[in-house]
Amino acid sequence: MFNAFLATAAKAAAPAAQGAQGTAQQTQTNPMGMLLLMGGAFILMFWMMSRSNKKQQQKREELLDSITKGTEVMLASGIYGTVSAVQDKIFTVEIADRVFVKVNRAGIHDVIRPEAPAEEKKEEKKEEKSDK
């Protein structure tokens, strides 16, 4: 009797299993579509990164082009100084009283901008708020 019950249950489960396989096949995604989607995402990410790098490089070039005699700079080594002469790709930087160092253009890390007094900063912020 138990064997008869198992046989009946197996017959009833067979169409249900075939139906489950049919729905599973219908919900499968196309691997080519998934590959195209991932490829598109990769290309978009690569384009965004290269665009960002290009902007940073352009900003750095503008910074280096703005250096003139008397500009305070920080070298890549962390030494602060004042530019005393500008040649083609070489800057002469005074790092102490009558101590000069010749530095390649790539050796300039940052330009030090003089800070405005605190009162001027407050006035600038007030003007910006009133402009909005």
Walk me through the structure.
- The protein is α+β, with helices and mostly antiparallel strands.
- It has a domain at 60-112: SH3 type barrels, CATH 2.30.30.
- 57% of the residues lie in helices and 21% in strands.
- The chain contains 3 helices and 5 strands.
- It has helices at 2-27, 31-65, 118-131, and strands at residues 72-75, 80-86, 90-96, 99-104, 108-111.
- A 5-stranded antiparallel β-sheet has the order 4-3-2-1-5, with no helix packed on it.
- A hairpin with a 4-residue loop joins strand 1 (72-75) and strand 2.
- It is elongated.
Task: List its traits.
132 residues, alpha+beta, SH3 type barrels, five-stranded antiparallel β-sheet, 3 helices, 57% helix
Distance between the termini: 87 Å
Residue share in helix? 55-70%
Arithmetic mean pLDDT: 79
Order of helices and strands: HHEEEEEH
Largest sheet: 5 strands, antiparallel
Low-confidence stretches: none
Radius of gyration: 35 Å
Q: What structural class do you assign from the helix and strand content? A: alpha+beta
Name of the CATH first level of the domain at 60-112: Mainly Beta
Number of E strands = 5
Question: Can you list the strand order of the major beta sheet?
Answer: 4-3-2-1-5
Number of helices: 3
| CATH architecture name of the domain at 60-112 | Roll
Within the CATH hierarchy, at the fold level, what is the topology of the domain at 60-112?
A: SH3 type barrels
Question: What percentage of amino acids are in beta strands?
Answer: 15-25%
Gross morphology is: elongated
Topology:
Blueprint: H1 2-27, H2 31-65, E1 72-75, E2 80-86, E3 90-96, E4 99-104, E5 108-111, H3 118-131
